[in-house]
Amino acid sequence: MEEAAALNGSAGPGASPSPPAATASARPPATPEGMALAYGSLVLMALLPIFFGALRSVSCAKSKNSSEMPETITSRDAARFPIVASCTLLGLYLFFKIFSQEYINLLLSMYFFVLGILALSHTISPMMNRFFPANFPNKQYQLLFTQGSGESKEEIVNYEFDTKDLVCLALSSVVGVWYLLRKHWIANNLFGLAFSLNGVELLHLNNVSTGCILLGGLFIYDVFWVFGTNVMVTVAKSFEAPIKLVFPQDLLEKGLEADNFAMLGLGDIVIPGIFIALLLRFDISLKKNTHTYFYTSFVAYIFGLGLTIFIMHIFKHAQPALLYLVPACIGFPLLVALAKGEVTEMFSYEESSTPKEAPGASKEEPTAADKKEK
Length: 374
Known about the structure:
Elements: H1 20-24, H2 32-62, E1 71-73, H3 75-98, H4 101-128, E2 140-147, E3 154-162, H5 163-182, H6 185-202, E4 203-205, H7 208-228, H8 231-238, E5 244-248, H9 251-254, E6 261-265, H10 267-286, H11 292-315, H12 322-340, H13 343-348, H14 368-373
Parallel strand pairs: 1-4
Antiparallel strand pairs: 2-3, 5-6
Helix pairs in contact: 2-6, 2-10, 2-11, 3-7, 3-8, 4-5, 4-6, 5-6, 6-10, 7-10, 7-12, 10-11, 10-12, 11-12
Subcellular location: Endoplasmic reticulum membrane; Membrane
Organism: Aythya fuligula (Tufted duck)
Keywords: Endoplasmic reticulum, Hydrolase, Membrane, Transmembrane, Transmembrane helix
């Protein structure tokens, strides 16, 4: 998963890698109305995949379909992730400095064209199912790749889908062709939203401690690469791929052909989002019919992102959003847990294990089949 750039309020993806203050002199400054519309739209677009991705992560955790099984992030994965992300980011920066930006972006466009179609298809599939008539001829398919033979046969790919999924794939392909040919910001955002929602839904932290390690490590990563170097901002502006959400600040003046973009990296959505989704599943495991920690962390994300935009607007410089999002998303739920006396329960919750019974709840007796199997 690519770690995208921080919020940038003055330049679009195709702009020069100079700081926002320098870029602003090359084009008419954005109007207050245009900036408010752009920032408000970015916040709304960031919240949608977190909210719905978290809800879908609950059913994803219970799914037995191999094509929808979540990828669990362990503490070891979390500790290594900032290092891997830093190497990837620096590698992209060097590639853009050494090789032609045009050919690199062409290869990346083809790669994200395929990934974007698959992600968007998976995103719209549950919603599209409601529009199919009851007598729709829906057939089941299975894509199976194995390695070896006999007892040593091992499954490499086992993907189940149906005719409805193929229809969704065809619709997503139209958006993919639009993006490939025009690089339009709306097509970019459709893919970006799909990537974000899929990330929040399918990437699961195994416990809260792992989430703290991941967010803490990427907190340092984001601050270093934005404040310490120009690498993050340069890659964000050179990288023509749907790894960021963009919204034009001159939409009111130029309409859909506007080109002065504010941007928000997908990493600033997915990383806090998977932590918020974990807290939702923790809420459900408590069996108290409340989603206190989910809503607390969701409000914390809004606060952190709003603070990012405010600071960026004041200092006229790209900001590492995780600098503000990480303390908010970890600190707010932790304060609530302290107030409710549930810190131990929060940090002992394990994603891979069966959710613990709420205090006083009755435990299910093993069935006859279970006893026989034992």
